[in-house]
Specification:
The chain has 12 helices and 16 strands. By secondary structure, the chain is α/β, with parallel strands linked by helices. It has 2 domains: about 200 residues, no CATH class; about 160 residues, Rossmann fold (3-Layer(aba) Sandwich). The strands form 4 sheets. Strands 2, 3, 4, 6, 7, 8 and 9 form a 7-stranded mixed β-sheet that branches. Strand 2 and strand 3 form a beta hairpin. The longest helix is centred in the first third of the chain and has 17 residues. The radius of gyration is 22 Å and the shape is globular. The relative contact order is 0.11. The model has no long low-confidence stretch (mean pLDDT about 95).
């Protein structure tokens, strides 16, 4: 998070952001209208979008989100979820508030930018950032890259494990903060891999499934269960307070209960690839559905005040089956922060009502 987000309140950031957004609109440019040293178009099955990998000389990368500018300060649209970004005035204001005082750094290496908005978060990283590596590999230019640019918040365990899965653990990583601009002699960029954030394109599932198919060959065939219940014991919100009762219901049906954080990212990919049935509270634990096969069935547990359609969309996009139980009883919610009721809470599950939905789910053909 940059200084603007830390020092300025939301109203000021929003006011600054609206001005910046107008400037970005005026000074935006399409990838087709700029001088490029290299441009490789890529068309994937199950996608209406044309992906690309390009090389641009003397381009500029600003902030941990990755705003990409040409040498004459035009922002490049297709490498970002541009229309989505233009809606985020407060976020933009925070990141550009001290733009005139930014730290500048020059790099003469062949660098590939792995930046994208919100990629400090697991879901956005898996769905919107790592797919850029599929594009890079498919372009045939992976070996040309000397270093990768990442936001300075992308140093968690799952970030590092991801790079290892792609064979990049020994590559040079250049971390960039929100107050830094890197001027790259040779900058390689990919297109943003989906139409927008939160909803990954179908080709991304195909890539992750093929990757997971290879990864699982390293393990004993009985290493991963066919029926999985994902528990949230290592998170602080949206936990099921009577989870022991729920587990007792699921055990006779052959469900193993797993905490994703107890497994390496590689193992998590394999768990989702191998599973036939998955039950989970809606949340980042279901991110790895992109690794699942079309035969998977998922039962999502959705608290009424935190319903979301991302995972329903993902299952429909995959061609798999999705069922849902929505906990609606207000008396079952325990709020920790009355000002953040949409996220900061735990809840009890109405076991009797859940059983009805679960029995239908279990009998799906």
């Amino acid at each position: 998070m940059g200084l603007g987000n830390k020092l300025l309140n939301g109203k000021i950031r929003n006011k600054i952001g609206l001005k910046i957004i107008n400037k970005l609109k005026i000074n935006s440019v399409s990838i087709n209208d700029i001088n490029k040293e290299l441009y490789i178009p890529l068309k994937y099955d199950n996608s209406n979008l044309e992906m690309f990998l390009c090389k641009i000389n003397n381009a500029k990368v600003y902030s941990s989100w990755g705003f990409y500018f040409t040498s004459d300060n035009k922002i490049i649209k297709e490498v970002l979820p541009f229309e989505r970004i233009l809606q985020l005035s407060s976020e933009i204001g925070g990141r550009f508030a001290f733009y005139n005082f930014r730290f500048k750094k020059k790099i003469d290496l062949n660098v590939f930018s792995l930046q994208s908005i919100w990629n400090v978060c697991f879901g956005h990283w898996i769905h919107e950032t790592l797919p850029k590596l599929f594009i890079l590999k498919d372009s045939g230019l992976l070996n040309e890259i000397d270093a990768f640019i990442l936001g300075d918040g992308c140093q968690s365990k799952f970030h590092k494990e991801s790079l290892k899965i792609f064979g990049l653990e020994n590559k040079k990583i250049i971390y960039i903060s929100d107050e830094t601009e890197i001027i790259c002699k040779n900058l390689y960029l990919s297109s943003f891999p989906s139409e927008t954030t939160h909803y990954p394109s179908k080709w991304i599932y195909d890539k992750y499934k093929k990757l997971s198919e290879e990864l699982i060959k390293k393990y004993d065939k009985n290493r991963f269960p066919k029926k999985v219940y994902l528990i949230r014991k290592k998170v602080k919100t949206r936990r099921i307070l009577n989870e022991d009762e729920l587990v007792e219901i699921l055990k006779p049906f052959g469900y193993d209960y797993l905490c994703p954080e107890d497994y390496s990212l590689e193992e998590q990919f394999c768990i989702f690839y191998n599973a036939d049935k998955i039950i989970s509270v809606l949340g980042s634990g279901l991110t790895n559905l992109v690794c699942s096969k079309e035969t998977v069935s998922v039962l999502g547990i959705a608290p009424k005040n935190r319903w979301e359609d991302t995972y329903k969309f993902m299952l429909e996009n995959l061609g798999a089956k999705y069922s849902e139980y929505i906990e609606c009883n207000e008396k079952n919610f325990v709020y920790h922060n009355k000002h953040n009721k949409n996220n900061d809470f735990d809840f009890y599950l109405d076991i009797d009502k859940f059983k009805i939905v679960f029995n239908k789910f279990e009998n799906l053909e």
